[in-house]
Amino acid sequence: xxxxxxxxxxxxxxxxxxxxxxxxxxxxxxxxxxxxxxxxxxxxxxxxxxxxxxxxxxxxxxxxxxxxxxxxxxxxxxxxxxxxxxxxxxxxxxxxxxxxxxxxxxxxxxxxxxxxxxxxxxxxxxxxxxxxxxxxxxxxxxxxxxxxxxxxxxxxxxxxxxxxxxxxxxxxxxxxxxxxxxxxxxxxxxxxxxxxxxxxxxxxxxxxxxxxxxxxxxxxxxxxxxxxxxxxxxxxxxxxxxxxxxxxxxxxxxxxxxxxxxxxxxxxxxxxxxxxxxxxxxxxxxxxxxxxxxxxxxxxxxxxxxxxxxxxxxxxxxxxxxxxxxx
Length: 327
Fold this sequence. Notes:
- This protein has 327 residues and is an alpha/beta fold.
- It contains 13 helices and 10 strands.
- Helix 4 (115-124) packs across helix 13, helix 10 packs across helix 11 (235-258) and helix 11 packs parallel to helix 12 (280-289).
- The N and C termini lie far apart (43 Å).
């Protein structure tokens, strides 16, 4: 465990912190004053909607301390920090998170933004375009050539998050239920669901999936099994992943229309575990998106979202210095 009490000692303030906090994990990155990646840490979930604001802040602070500890430094060395979080679209939530984090990162300039903002930077830096995020949940965020931004999705697993891991897993479990009842075709997903949720059979699955220990993060993990079944040609699994890609394409088109980019050549980045499940989701996304843009090109992320946040923190610090000099 890192020695968090050492943060009170005097330290050279020359580190930059970036945090990507989601429903599954928290990824922290430390950059040097030269922009070199010095340390990383992976901790538990910090989506405030799932863990609560205080627990989220505590997880982020601990993750930052652990990352600093790996290079023999403390959080007192952090001069600027950007935290990208799922579930902080409202300013009051961002403001409260800044307040909570300031108790631990006492000397740092703090910014709290959405996970979509750091993901867009990770893919495009300051260029115009879209980022489609499909991890535990899903969201699409875009910026046009005039700097205006828009988003679609991010409504959480109850009201939305179509195309994300939870949505894919729920569609798969629904297919398993229909197959078990004889209301739908047989599918390899039945066997995979029983294995994943440790039930003796598909018939026992109803007990397993409603256990108090099964949360949305656990459910989202079943999406990996759906991808395996699809790779082996299971039609039900293929259809579920194709639907997920189409839903993500619908969200992307909503952002494109809002930003007036329908006649543009649009750069698109994809971020999140769903896109590592094979090409089915991405192909369906591309097919749907092609209906609302003149042309598109897909681009890979330049850095992880957490490193993108750290680079935003770096820019934030030097922008502040420039502003002071102008005064």
